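In the laboratory, one determines a bound structure by crystallizing the protein with its ligand and collecting diffraction data. In a computational setting the workflow is compressed into a single prediction: the sequence and the ligand go in, and a structural description comes out. We illustrate the idea with zinc ion.
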Amino acid sequence: MNGTNLCEVCNEREHTRLCDYATGTGIITSVDFKELTETCNKKICTACAVQLWDDCDICPDHAEQVKKKLFRE
Ligand SMILES: [Zn+2]
Ligand SMILES: [Zn+2]
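The predicted complex, in structure-token form:
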């Protein structure tokens, strides 16, 4: 069981969460809708996770995508 719990972003710390970004529909879902959509589920540690709101943390890659969507011109 070596390394399986490592954060996939930094590969240094143990991951504590999974990316909540919904890959199936391309939208971010609240916890209630999680089961309806596929999520990224990338393993991320607290240092690498980007928190959008309570109980919704996403990987840095998807955080960039979200920012572009929210603030696109
Ligand atoms: Zn990390
Ligand atoms: Zn992600």
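DSSP finds one helix and four strands in the chain. Keep in mind that any predicted model is a hypothesis to be tested, not a measurement.
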